Amino acid sequence: DCTESSLMPPQADLYILSDVFESSTVARGAAAWTKKLLDDGCQVWVFAQTDRAQREVYIDELRQIHDSDCQWFTFEQFTTKHRLWLCEVDETTVSYG
Whose CB has fewer CB within 10 Å in the chain, the N or C terminal residue? Predict the structure, then answer.
């Protein structure tokens, strides 16, 4: 439950977040989790379709509490040198075959 700041997921090296933009409250909670996980030395990958209404709430919050330079990247721009990957998913180019 991303909306409860006292709750955190179980310990892991890599966290993958997807579809965490159901509401602005969930988006802000996911941003808080992201910051805490990064502060703990974890890797965080976040996947978001370009049409998700609250994804800008998430990244705006993350910019305020973590890094003002946070931005979305495509699959082609992935690099392992960063612990945070904000992956922009263009659903029109995804093959579900």
Answer: C
